[in-house]
Amino acid sequence: MTKKGVVASLIGAIFFALVFPAVVTIADSLEKVKAYQFVVDGEKWFTVAETEKEAVEEILREYQGQFMKNIDENAQIKKVGFAQQVFLAEVEVKPEEIDPFEIVEEMIYAVEEEALEIEVKKGDNFWNLSRKYKLSVNDLIILNPDINPEKIYPGDKLLVRPMNPILDVVIELENTVVESIPFKVKYRRDNRLYTHQQKILRAGVEGEKEVLYHITLLNGYQHSLAVLEEKVLKEPSDALVQIGTRKTVSRGGRINYGVVSGTRISSYYGYRIHPITGKRRFHDGIDIAAPHGNTVYAYTDGVVVEAGWNGGYGYCILIDHGDGLKTRYAHLSRIFVRVGQRVRVEERIGAVGSTGNSTGPHLHFEVIKNGRTTNPLNYL
Ligand SMILES: [Zn+2]
Hints:
Strands 17, 20, 22, 23, 24, 26, 28 and 29 form an eight-stranded antiparallel beta sheet that branches. Strands 3-9-12-13 form a four-stranded antiparallel beta sheet. The chain has helices at residues 3-17, 26-31, 53-65, 102-108, 126-132, 137-143, and strands at residues 33-40, 43-49, 76-82, 86-93, 111-113, 116-119, 157-161, 164-165, 169-181, 185-189, 198-202, 207-218, 221-234, 239-243, 255-256, 261-262, 264-267, 270-273, 280-283, 286-289, 295-297, 302-309, 315-322, 325-332, 334-335, 342-343, 348-351, 362-369, 372-374. The protein is built from six helices and 29 strands.
């Protein structure tokens, strides 16, 4: 069924489910006419003439439709309704009790609080904006599904408060998206290699899975999201890396990723399809969640080619290692190197932060090989 069809049939079901039988006396019926009363949570909102019932239903469909604009066209709409109990009740009223039709649209579209959109300024990020506007970082991400938190710049618009209507529209949908499965890196020790040396014997390849999401939207924005089913389409193939005596795992729940000691990879490299909008977004690096202020080290010997503020990346360093290899370190809180400076492997170059458009303290680490980004997991 099409989205419109589902909406129509659902609204229809709501209306016809509850039709009040009108009890009238013969005397009353002479002066009373059949009409429809719009009732929300047991409260009468307005009364329209019998001939205007369909027009009211059409306005309700359009009203609900405004909250469906950003939904992926491949998604299956399962249910469209209101958070409130809403129905049109058949009644018999005196002609003077019928309200002018103009108020119908006005009442249905009534808003409790208008949306609030802000313009991004230098230094803003999801972390401090969420505190300023008293919502969670996750809410900010949900309200701006088209925005890549790492790639926004001063002047960009962000929704920090959604429009809050009186009649809340609840939409249930299901969507299947293909997602990548990260590969693991296996290390083979080789005593002939120095501590910091490593060689990729076999590059890892991401797998692929099909994920079925069940999502509910409240007034157009994600209210809940659950994975119903996952089907592996292609298993990932592990990377095999030859290393010297470099340690990969250290104590205390911290993982030594070489360039930083962190807690986990919070976002992997590659495409991600938004489960609601269906839009694809590319992540050029990996995000390693790490405590604010943790030291960031140079991946290997090289020359600093960029060091400073870089839009959504915040304080950022780019190092050229020669042989067509460059590495980028973003969202830093501090930078200890200058452009043109030579750095050695595992030299201290900066500190983990949340500058630029970042959702919390982490290191965005990017590997650029011959001008194109590549999966950093093969290099860590
Ligand atoms: Zn990132």
